[in-house]
């Protein structure tokens, strides 16, 4: 019997809150069941297992993240779009550490193809980078550079990994400036260094 009021949507929203409070790695079906005051078994009519819950949370958080990025970059191009994209990314990662961690898990490609939020993420990210005149395979390389830079910076910042006596935001701004320069002067596939 399905407990009244429990839905997949409510479970995923509660999982997002729990992940932010306790950490994505501490998210469990048992912890979520306790939040609703039910037995673990009550949740299994809505989610198959912990992996299913984590994937649903990853898709939910990915949707939230791209909604914020899309609003930030709307009507912008070039460095202005990159700065807005980076700022929205960083703000989300720092404000929602558990949800952000969920966005980093590996998801089966078939699920990605079915996710409007993840397709939108690709469209917005690649669209911003096309403003720099990039085409494939350079687009994929540039996406990987941005993702690894933004992710590494946010993870280090949230863990208190920057100990130097320098404003962390100032360093972030310099990193975004450096990315803009790299994208502006991108070594195109097939170009020779000669």
From TrEMBL:
Q: Which residues bind DNA?
A: 28-47
Ranges in a coiled coil: none
Instruction: State one Pfam family annotation.
Output: TetR_C_33
* Residue ranges of every copy of the HTH tetR-type domain listed in the record: 5-65
Q: Which UniProt keywords apply?
A: DNA-binding, Transcription, Transcription regulation
Q: Which PANTHER family match?
A: HTH-TYPE TRANSCRIPTIONAL REGULATOR RUTR, TRANSCRIPTIONAL REGULATORY PROTEIN
Protein name (database record): WHG domain-containing protein
Recorded source organism is Streptomyces lavenduligriseus
Q: Mind giving the lineage of the organism this protein is from?
A: Bacteria, Bacillati, Actinomycetota, Actinomycetes, Kitasatosporales
């Amino acid at each position: 019997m399905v407990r009244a009021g429990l839905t997949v949507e409510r479970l995923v929203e509660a999982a997002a809150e729990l992940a932010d409070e306790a950490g994505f790695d501490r998210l469990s079906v048992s912890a979520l069941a306790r939040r609703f005051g039910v037995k673990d078994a009550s949740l299994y009519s809505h989610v198959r297992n912990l992996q299913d819950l984590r994937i649903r949370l990853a898709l939910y958080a990915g949707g939230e993240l791209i909604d914020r990025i899309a609003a930030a970059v709307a009507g912008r191009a070039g460095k202005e779009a990159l700065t807005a994209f980076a700022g929205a990314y960083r703000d989300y990662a720092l404000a929602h550490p558990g949800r952000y961690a969920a966005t980093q898990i590996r998801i089966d490609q078939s699920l990605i193809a079915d996710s409007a939020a993840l397709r939108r993420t690709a469209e917005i990210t690649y669209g911003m980078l096309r403003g720099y005149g990039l085409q494939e395979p350079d687009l994929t390389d540039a996406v990987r550079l941005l993702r690894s830079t933004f992710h590494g910076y946010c993870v280090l910042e949230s863990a208190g990994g920057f100990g130097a006596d320098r404003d962390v935001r100032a360093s972030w701004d310099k990193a975004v400036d450096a990315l803009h320069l790299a994208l502006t002067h991108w070594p195109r596939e097939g170009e020779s260094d000669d």
